[in-house]
Amino acid sequence: MPKKIGPSILLHPLGWLWASPLTLTGLVLGLCTLPFGARMRRTRSALVFHRFPFGPGGALTLGNVILHTGDSLDVLTRTYACAAYGGDEHVCLGDHERAHVYQSMVLGPLFPILYFACGGISVRNRFEQAADRYAQTGSGWWPWPGSPNAASSSS
Question: With the C-alpha atoms ordered 117, 139, 56, 68, is the resulting torsion angle positive or negative?
Answer without folding.
Answer: negative
